[in-house]
Design goal:
Radius of gyration: 12 Å
Structural class: alpha+beta
Distance between the termini: 27 Å
Oligomer: single chain
Strand order of the largest sheet: 1-2-3
Bound molecules: zinc ion
């Protein structure tokens, strides 16, 4: 595996992605795409994968950040909700 850059906590990546709006569900900045139970009984905000892509395009998150999100997602589409920031 190639190390692309500094790895940040996924919570920091989610916080920066939250600065964008979401093209999938229409959630505005600072509003998570969903609140629900994530995998393994975790709870917290979820964000559509498309939102991380928008944040990457806007320069809000790095290539390494995006790689961490993709790794957390596994198999995904633009409409997959990423629960990596859920606790
Ligand atoms: Zn969304």
């Amino acid at each position: 595996m190639t190390v692309i850059g500094t790895v940040r906590p996924i919570a920091a990546v989610c916080a920066d992605a939250e600065l964008t709006g979401c093209g999938v569900c229409g959630a505005g900045p600072h509003i998570p795409c969903a609140f629900a139970s994530g995998p393994a009984g975790s709870d917290g905000p979820g964000y559509h994968m498309a939102r991380f892509a928008a944040a990457r395009r806007a320069g809000l998150i790095s290539e390494a950040d995006m790689a961490a999100v993709i790794e957390a997602a596994g198999v995904f589409t633009a409409a997959t909700v990423i629960w990596a920031c859920a606790r």
